[in-house]
Design goal:
The protein contains 3 helices and 10 strands, in the order αββαββββββββα. It is mostly beta strands and 191 residues long. A hairpin with a 2-residue loop joins β8 and β9.
Length: 191
C-alpha cells in the first residue's frame, strides 16, 4: 500500500494523532556535548471551538473565525508516568492560507526554543515534507517532518542563533499501538 502523505496541517495533525515513541539526538555546535534520549509524544486533534484553541487566539489577538482547528502536544519521559508534565505541552492552532491549504501559519501557546507564544510559518512540499519556520526574538527554528509509513515518521530540526547554527536535532518516531489496536490487527491478519 502506497503512503498518502498529509498535505494540509489538519491532515498532518489527524495522521499524527495518538502516542508516539520518539528517539532523538541533538548536536550542539557550540559545545562538544551531544544529547540523546527517548520520550513519548501524545497528540490530540482539537476542534476549532475547543476552549484551548479559543484561549490561544484570544492571547494572541487572532479573530476566532480564522483557525480551522489545532492539536495538543504533550511530551513525557515514560508512559509509565500517568500524568504528563504540563510544562512539556503545547497547543497549536492552524490558520491555513485561504488560497493554498498546503501553506499557512499556526499559533503556539509556547514555543519550543523559547517558552513564549509564537507564530510559525509552514508549508508542505509536493512530496509531503512539512517545513516549519519559527522566528523568535534572537533565534530562528526550522523543522522538517515527513512520514515514512503511516506509523513511522522522521523530524529534523535546526536552531539558528544570531551568530549562526547552534544546534541540530534528529528524531525518529514510531506510533505506539494500543492493546485494542493489536487485537484488531490480530483478528484481521492472523485469525
Amino acid at each position: 500500500m502506497q503512503l498518502k502523505p498529509p498535505m494540509t496541517m489538519m491532515d498532518f495533525f489527524r495522521k499524527s494523532e495518538g502516542t508516539w515513541f520518539s528517539q532523538r539526538t541533538v548536536h550542539h555546535f557550540d559545545t562538544t556535548a551531544e544529547q540523546s534520549g527517548d520520550s513519548n509524544i501524545i497528540i490530540e486533534v482539537l476542534d476549532k471551538n475547543d476552549t484551548r484553541i479559543i484561549k490561544v487566539c484570544e492571547e494572541q489577538n487572532i479573530h476566532q473565525d480564522l483557525p480551522v482547528g489545532g492539536a495538543s502536544f504533550l511530551w513525557q519521559d515514560n508512559l509509565d508516568d500517568p500524568n504528563p508534565n504540563p510544562n512539556w505541552a503545547a497547543i497549536l492552532v492552524d490558520i491555513p492560507d485561504q488560497e493554498d491549504q498546503t501553506r499557512g501559519r499556526f499559533l503556539r501557546n509556547k514555543g519550543y526554543v523559547e517558552g513564549i507564544p509564537v507564530v510559525c510559518q509552514y508549508n508542505f512540499s509536493p512530496d509531503g515534507v512539512l517545513t516549519i519556520i519559527t522566528e523568535y526574538e534572537k533565534n530562528q527554528g526550522m523543522e522538517r517532518c515527513w512520514f515514512i509509513t503511516d506509523d513511522f515518521r522522521v523530524r529534523v530540526s535546526t536552531v539558528k542563533m544570531m551568530n549562526g547554527v547552534n544546534l541540530m536535532g534528529y528524531c525518529s518516531e514510531r506510533r505506539c499501538v494500543s492493546p485494542e489496536m493489536l487485537e484488531k490487527m490480530a483478528q484481521k491478519y492472523f485469525l
